[in-house]
Write a structure and sequence with these properties.
The protein is an all-alpha fold and 66 residues long. The chain has two helices and no strands. Helix content is 67%, strand content 0%. Helix 1 (10-30) runs antiparallel to helix 2.
């Protein structure tokens, strides 16, 4: 079991939420649908990227000396 198996990418998730909130704030303050779609879409992509980086199958480390 690797050390990364229990690791959660909190900075990635926090950044994703902040980007999505920025898009929502653009919609709330100025009524910009494009801002909301871009912000929420980008936040979702960043959140998925943070999740996918940790859940991807990693190659096993090869030990030297043989």
């Amino acid at each position: 079991m690797s050390a990364l198996s229990n690791y959660v990418d909190y900075p990635g998730y926090i950044y994703a939420v902040m980007v999505a909130q920025g898009g929502i704030m653009g919609y709330v303050k100025k009524g910009s649908v494009a801002s909301m779609l871009a912000g929420v879409g980008s936040g979702a992509a960043i959140g998925y990227g943070a999740y996918a980086m940790l859940s991807a199958d990693r190659p096993k480390q090869v030990e030297g000396g043989e």
